[in-house]
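[User] Could I get a sequence and structure tokens?

[Assistant]
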Amino acid sequence: MIAATPDAELELGTSEPRDLAATIGFIRRGRGDPTLHVVEGPEGWREVWRAQRTPEGTATLRLLVEGEYLRAQAWGPGATWSVDRAPALIGEHDDWRPLDAVLAARDDAATTALSRARRRRRGLRLTSTGIVLEAAVAAVLEQKVTGVEARRAWRRLVLQHGERAPGHAPEGLTVMPDGVGWRSIPDHEWHRAGVGPQRMATIRRVAAVSASLDRLTELEPSALEVALQSIPGVGQWTVAEVLQRSHGHPDLVSVGDAHLPHVVGTWFTGDRVDDAGMLELLAPWAGHRQRIVRLITSLGVDVQSFGARATISDHRGH
């Protein structure tokens, strides 16, 4: 179906073909995520519809990658902002050439395996949404619960308390609440969504300073990292999960995750490791550790066999 006339649009050549599923799938909160709808073709994701709350207002964004060309169309008050940010969303500014040079220079079994993974995922890039509140709320919802529980809570809360995506949008596409909206959700609604008092309180605290966080978005990620960690309930793991999505941070690793060390350890050694072991294995790739993690996890390493995220105890700040 051809979209109605957008409020803003952009078409540009990308540096090479892009894999939408591998790149933007990182911000999708399950197949039922009401903020992101996907149209699949025979070779994967053909186009993406995304509802987002930008610093300039709500927007519906349609992304279509055809070979080496990106077409972005947007509707709503945040349309221009969304179109301007579309290249970053598909990782167009994420430069993997330094990592490729490192891979080419090393000659060992791990590097050979990573080089093979890189060839299989040439279209993978680190996405950068530029939207902190969205990533922060979703990350807090994932603290100390399974992914299924977190995705269910996200879907319920967004559908009940968000708003319909503006302009020409697929049925059901929904923009998440703004800072005031998240803070206004009654306690009993959080309870019905399966969100306990601690996560509820943390999200409310994050939402209360969302405007300040928006102002820090264009600064160095380190400034935002400090600001986020000053919020009670937001710790190292949560900050990493946020900046990986809002800024496409190439090096931050989610220390404190119940699954990730086992996945990384299995990839490199065949055995489980703890956080310290994971960081030791990733040390040779300093500056690119998140890129390495994304390469590994994009290939479908079985995370579920390592138990529930609920077993970890240090997702939160103190």
